Amino acid sequence: MDKEKIQSILHDVQNCSMSVDEAMLQLKMEPFEDLGFAKLDHHRGLRQGIAEVIYGAGKTTEQIAGISEAMLKAGQKNILITRLDKEKAEILSQTLPLHYDEMSRIGYLGELPEPDGTGTVLVATGGTSDMPVAEEAALTAEVLGNHVDRLYDVGVAGLHRLLAHLDEIMSAYVIVAVAGMEGALASVIGGLADCPVIAVPTSVGYGASFGGLSALLSMLNSCASGVSVVNIDNGFGAGYLASMINHMGGHK
């Protein structure tokens, strides 16, 4: 149940078009819905400001469809599905109004909302190979109501590429820095920006990168202040956190 639904119930009680007992019944029934294979948390949007997100990997198309349909029935306008492969997306799109992005493996129901965050979320990558993770972060932030700018392939192997975009870096409200290899991009951006920087290590790299562990440890040991780190390839987590920061208010 979202805030608008709660407000509608309260207005109905205030206008005497709904009894207190009826309102209590609706509120009691709403916290979660048991679908058998999943317990859908309808109150997450009310508690956290963002509705439950469907993690697509490991779920069948029938399970994803069932959860989505229950969320739509409960009045959820935008539904985000992460780690959704192309084959499942094609099946789901036959019965649901699904938008799908193959690079980020993100699907969403409903239209992208008008941005209502404080400022701009900037998503930057060290290389082109980091784009799938970056797009997961960027599209997550867009579905959650943020204006997102993208700055791709600006890694430290050619630092002048990054320095040519200082205006975007300085004006961003929060920056997501996505990089594999040695993960140095986050430290460099952290030393330039006056906003929070969310570092995302990727599994991109040669043998000694250990599947992204090298970038993770580099980012955790960043000497730049104001840099936080999410898990390897966790673009969704970075986009979600960036949205939370961007909706806290305040001005640049």
Automatic annotation (TrEMBL):
Domain PurE residues, every copy: 119-251
Pfam families xrefs: AIRC
Name of the gene: larB
Protein name, as recorded: Nickel pincer cofactor biosynthesis protein LarB
GO terms for biological process, alphabetical: 'de novo' IMP biosynthetic process
Organism of provenance: Caproicibacterium lactatifermentans
InterPro entries, alphabetized: P2CMN_synthase_LarB (IPR039476), PurE_dom (IPR000031)
SMART domains reported for this sequence: AIRC
GO molecular function: hydrolase activity
